[in-house]
Amino acid sequence: MSTNKTKIFIDGQHGTTGLKIHERLKDRPDVELLELPMADRKDLAKRVEITKAADIAVLCLPDAAVKELMVAVGDADTCVIDASTAHRVADGWTFGFPEMTKTQRQKLLDSNRISNPGCYSTGGIALMHPLVEAGIIRKEATPAVFGVSGYTGGGKELIAVHEGTPDVEPFGIYGVELAHKHVPEMKKYSGLTHAPLFVPSVGHYAQGMLVMVPITRDIVGRKATAKDVHKVLADHYAGETFVTVRPLADRKWLERDRFLRADRLTDTNSMELAVYGNDAEENILVVASLDNLGKGASGAAVQVINLKTGVDETTGLAVAA
After folding, report:
1. Using CA atoms in the order 266, 267, 272, 278, what is the torsion angle rounded to 10 degrees?
2. Which of 35, 43, 95, 203 sits at a 20 to 30 Å CA gap from 264?
């Protein structure tokens, strides 16, 4: 990267994720944000020109628009961070989850084509990847993954429904065809042979997310207690700033000693993992808590920008107290 200000272009900066990325970057002295006039924002030639002029381009666009732009951009040297699903499992693209493996940061430094993770998949992969790697979850298993997100995860259309409809559902599951767009990346980066069974849901609140994976006898590769599972996760994320593991069976973050809020990490780039278990029944539950617009979207992109530009990874990002 240049020793001067890093030139960054956010294509789609007026969408939910783009707005949050812009908000985190706009006042930084090390960054120069490149913008197109409103009249040119759908002009492919102008978008290609400004993308090539940028050091980093962040694409907050529908999949089809991303693919169209990337064909036109070709092998330009610009580092592209794609926040869509278009390249999340594509060859030649590096997955933008720095904490996923001990070598992921170096892979990101060596790449100029980076796919920004999805919000649900960030939590699912954070939980499952270390456990598959350790042999606790069998690679050939089909884990169940359950998630609940705030309605901002659905973008402007769903935001409009929840903020403009008097009788909107307070809670609802969706993706009942069991083919959610985050499933391929969960499968690939968790190290699974088969796709997990993923059931997402939306609550009538703005931001925040919980992702849960039951570790039951039918998916384990070797017998493990909740303590064993906790140690694997704690060892894997030891020393990380944004991904931390709560104490085993921790109740201190529960409301009234019982309820885990989904919105407790709002406006941070933190993700907290927890392990609960009933060893007598050989049942274990692992949980990830994060902000769907933080570590699950815009925060993740800014973290990678920080890594690529050589500044501290926490620059412009809040860490949970």
Report:
1. 10
2. 95
Give the pLDDT of the chain (321 residues) as one tens digit per residue.
445 899 999 999 999 999 999 999 999 999 999 999 999 999 999 999 999 999 999 999 999 999 999 999 999 999 999 999 999 999 999 999 999 999 999 999 999 999 999 999 999 999 999 999 999 999 999 999 999 999 999 999 999 999 999 999 999 999 999 999 999 999 999 999 999 999 999 999 999 999 999 999 999 999 999 999 999 999 999 999 999 999 999 999 999 999 999 999 999 999 999 999 999 999 999 999 999 999 999 999 999 999 999 999 999 999 998
Pick from 54, 117, 111, 53: nearest CA to 82: 117
CATH of 6-117+296-309, one of 3.40.50.720, 3.60.21.10, 3.65.10.10, 3.40.1370.10: 3.40.50.720
Q: Which one of the listed residues 25, 31, 80, 119 is annotated catalytic? A: 119
> What single string gives the DSSP state of each residue in 277-318?
EETTTTEEEEEEEE-TTIIIIIHHHHHHHHHHHTS-TTTT--
Does the active-site annotation cover 79? no
Burial of 226 (0-12, 13-18, 19+ CB in 10 A): buried
The torsion angle over the Cα atoms of residues 63, 68, 74 and 80, rounded to 10 degrees, is -30
